[in-house]
Description:
Strand content: under 5%
Helix content: over 70%
Radius of gyration: 19 Å
Amino acid sequence: MMQANTKANNTQCLVAGGIAGIAVDTALFPLDTIKTRLQAKGGFMASGGFRGIYSGLSSAIIGSSPGAALFFLTYEQTKAACERRMEPKYQAFGHMAAASAGEVAACLVRVPTEVLKQRLQANHHRSLGAAIRGTYRAEGLLGFYRGYLTQVVREIPFTCIQFPVYEFLKHSYATKHARGIKSWEAAVCGSVAGGAAAAFTTPLDVVKTRVMLSTKGVGAHHEYSGVVSTLTRIAREEGARALFSGVVPRTIWISVGGFVFLGSYEKAKEILVDGRIFAYR
């Protein structure tokens, strides 16, 4: 059982976050590929259909562990700082701030791997090496951070919904049953919170996908270069419905992903703390 007052140190948060990142990205990668191809400008079949649904997995795995580790380390530290300084009735805002800080930090690692992963998923390149060379030749080092601001703009509203709801559900369940919440129960809370956040933020995810699939000065995608301009362009050229392309696989993916990701994180943290693994500060 995961006790409510269990506190992990920085190293334990890093390791547990890394384990959770690899677990969720590996398990749910096919759904992510389908979602990306549905959102691509060329459409699902033109982007590969159901062929090669594990294209880009290597890039995702490379970035998943350090990205998730950095997120949870920043999140836990910021949340603890906010809880010390804020009254309980305002702690939801502290959770929003902590999640936002975690996403800004994690995107420093996540965005380059996301750019490469999505270009492989959409069949823009045949291998990870080709994607790296093609991106660098076309746009230089900044090409790997194409869509960084767009991703942050997408992730902050997402986490501002997901993590306050997640923390609220965990706290309410633990209070109702007068005990610490188990890792599988935390996973269910994460699933509910993640699914709701995913559905509401799908338009921003569509924008992020279009911007990341763009290559500066190449092909029909080169005009996708900002959140507001991309939103309005998609709505104008394809209709408002296109802003919710992939909403079903995205919601399913993140609902299941929330269960795997947050459940794995809580379980890994529980094992590390109870076993006194990396139990130093």
